[in-house]
Amino acid sequence: MVVFRLWRRFHGVLTLALDTSGDVCVLALGREDVVLGEYRFQHKMSLLRRLLPNIELLMSDAGYKVSDVEGFIVGLGPGSFTGLRIGVTVAKTLAYSLNKPIVGVGSLDALAYSVAPVGTQLMCPMVHARADEVYWTIVGCSGGDKIADYRVSSIGEVANDIANRNLSTYFCGSAALRHSQFIRERLGELAVIGNYGAAHPSGWGLLLLGRQRIVKRERDDPIAITPLYVRKPTPVLRLESGEIKSSDALC
What domains, with CATH codes, occur in the chain? Predict the structure, then answer.
């Protein structure tokens, strides 16, 4: 049985945050409300090979070792099935092996905390799912309250939802950039599109959101914590449809 130390106040706790929900991996190290270092890299299907070396490089550049980390924050998605599986597995393995606490945060929530829209009433973080579908949610700009649960749908359905609300909305995330022309044409002045800097969660956004759980003395089980899948992963859907065999799904 693993016995975890209770979280101290966030001030003084050396915390490592990581998010692998998209094609850009985000790593951040924080202490005393300060981001000590942040790395982002586009892994191009090489996340498994590059994640641990980049974590070690981030720690080394900040003057620490991985064993110095006192708590872990990991983005749970939704997003890439393979990326999330790798990132969550690495984070929970480090937490378990070092006997340190771990908390999971929603990647779309972290994305919303990473940007500061001005003059809009709603925020709609979204990331690519597959084909023309996106993972998305709606957050209020005043107070940051989540107005809609995580969903997966076509970009047209997202636009229709916002149009029915008739409220100015800040769109952020990689899918917002990908579908920016359609969003502008469909919603006109109701839509404000974030730039590339708002395409992925920031290290500060991950640390800030994780801190909300940390100060409440919350933690997740490093064995049981799993990625957040809004729907069944694509390999499972392909397996159930008979498109691939079970041996292929495990590859």
Answer: 15-107+201-249 (3.30.420.40), 117-198 (3.30.420.200)
